[in-house]
């Protein structure tokens, strides 16, 4: 519209200049007509020329009217186009408003969801920290207060965790001191165990000597048991009888077979135990390998920590160099040199610096992106750039301006030059000037309204920009919250990794304890065996004493039997025989068999009944030969002796079997005691001391087993807690991924808004270019108007000079006529030119009358009259055409009056046009000032927007890098969590295996205890029998 107004204003100014030129020509012609009143022919020619020019002007007027009609049609078409464009713009504005409402609703929903999340988090934290929040404040203040309280709670939790860490360190130091004390106690216990081992060795040697003494052959006993041994001297006969009984093949074979079967079963059990021990050793090797893998994993974690520290340092230095914060780099270097740990350095110095630099970069990038988006939106709103494809709007702003905007501006400039050339060729008149001025006023009103609309649009854009800034600040706050959550997750993961390392160390310690327990259990099983052996040995000793007593009794009985048999009146052959043969003979005599003497054959204990039968036959023969008086007494005595002998034989057999079993058990227990690893101090002790030491060790192992079971239960609880924490970390990671997706969506939305801002910025830049172009045109028009005004002032001055000269002529004519025309002239009712024409007519008339009167004068005067009469004759001749000339003069005077009236009207219109031009100049100057201000503000806004766009680009790049790092860290955390879960599962499997092995060992131990109890019960039952 401004360009159309400028073109119309140029056309009007050109018409004004042409009308002014035409008026100047008319003035010149009038002056020539006044000067050449005598030359009527020239006047007629001039009138003819004027009429022709008037006809031409009339034709031009008709042409101008046609052009004005065409221009009106074009204006109507332009108005229709403007109305259609306005409708389109209104539709676009409605669509944009709908989009804005939708986006506002989406942002409100997001804000509500974020507020819900924050409320949930704060509720959780309040439930953890027992904090109470106010409920009467608004949502924003509540959320801010909740977030601040959450931060306070987190800080308190960190302080409490730090205090717990310090307490755990103190407990660890106490545990270390207790470990040192335990090691000292273990050393003392080892010394005691060595002492007990010596005692047990002594006991074992003594037992071995006893067994060798009790189970040796006849030669060995002859060699060993000489006169020095008291047992042979006291129990010689009974030991000889026992030797004969021990050499019984049948009993030896049966006992040997039973012993072999038992040995085979025991060997199988030993092989099974060896297999289980080998499996346990394999498991221990696997546990050692896992321990080494855990150590390598910890070393790799330390390496990754070093890498992360170096990367964080490089990132912080790069950000500090980008933000030109040399102090931060110096602070980082000083913090590194202070000797703090890398984790503390990362948490305390590097991460806050990185967060601050990231926040500044994000703000800069957001500002730059907002400026680019506004510029592109401004360019898109311009109707000239509607033909640009949507794909090209995604190009960067400089390339878009070079490729699309500048060629179109050059084309428009060429078109405007062509239009200006065409408009310069047009000529308009005063009526066109009036219409143009009216249209100019209307266009000025429309331009003012449009300027007001643009100002309102600029205010709306500022509001949008402020809203977008607020949204970006909210997004930055969300990003900071996400970074805080990420740091908290990192800290929790580090804590969990530390706890897992502690648990691994505890597991290693427990594995070592389990190994020790297995060794102790083995030693305890051996101790149980030793206790059983000791009980068996005590039982054997008691049985040996009982046997000694019984042997003494039986020896006394045998001596008494021998005395009785010697007192009997029997033949010498009977008395010369052994007591066993004597008893057999007596038994045969009691049965009634004949008495026969054997051939000196002495059988074994198995053939005793046959020999006793032979002896009885002999006794019967003797008794048949002797008297029958003593038979009744002998039978009674023999029955008693036979009964006692049978009892003694049964007891002897039972004692032999029990001695064989005891000897086998003692051998087995001695083998078991030999296999037990007893300290050298206790090997030389007696069996009772060894058994006491083994009992104490067994109690200690049971206590350690109970403590290990408690620790395993504690480990299971801690592993369950770790699994719950890992699930919570997985949930947090999923929430973080959802928030990252939301941030990406917001980033896309902001990128779209940046593109729109770029389009708006391009539109504004085009409008600024158009305003500058219109301003240049207005300056040109103003310069032309000033030149025309100067020409008008010169023409008015020239016209005033002509008027003064006309008045001088009138004064001369009045002075020559000296009539009463002064009143008419002074009245001013008639113009000066008409008065001059009338006075010239009067002057001519008076001159003619004077010449006619002077004919009656003298001759000289007559000659003068004749000379003067010639023109009078000519005048008389021309009296006939005088009327016509007067008519023509009247018509010319009328035309002159009409031209003067037109000139006055034109002058008034010029004055009005000058006043309007001055007012327009004032308005144009104000518009120029406003345009300059707008340009300055636009330039400042452009600079700000460019800076904001650059900062937004940098922040977006940094945010993308941070998002990539966060995703990498999230993946690493997930991998670490998975590896930790795998490690925990393996540890659970190992714990279950260890529990199973403990259960198996407990079952074995219980089975051994049951066997020992059964054996003890059997022994007790045997003793009772």
Which structural class should the secondary elements be placed in?
Answer: mainly alpha
**Helix proportion range:** over 70%
Portion in strands? under 5%
Order of helices and strands: HHHHHHHHHHHHHHHEHHHHH
Low-confidence regions: 130-140, 217-235, 336-340, 593-620, 819-830, 869-878
The gross shape turns out to be: rod-shaped
Instruction: Calculate Rg over CA atoms.
Output: 70 Å
Total beta-strand segments: 1
How widely separated are the two ends?
Answer: 136 Å
Roughly what is the average pLDDT, rounded to an integer?
Answer: 66
Largest sheet: none
How is this fold's topology laid out?
Elements: H1 2-35, H2 40-129, H3 139-215, H4 218-224, H5 230-234, H6 236-246, H7 249-322, H8 326-337, H9 342-381, H10 397-425, H11 430-567, H12 572-576, H13 579-591, H14 608-625, H15 631-675, E1 683-684, H16 687-817, H17 822-827, H18 832-853, H19 859-877, H20 879-1024
Keywords: Coiled coil
Coiled coil: 54-124, 158-185, 423-527, 698-746, 882-997
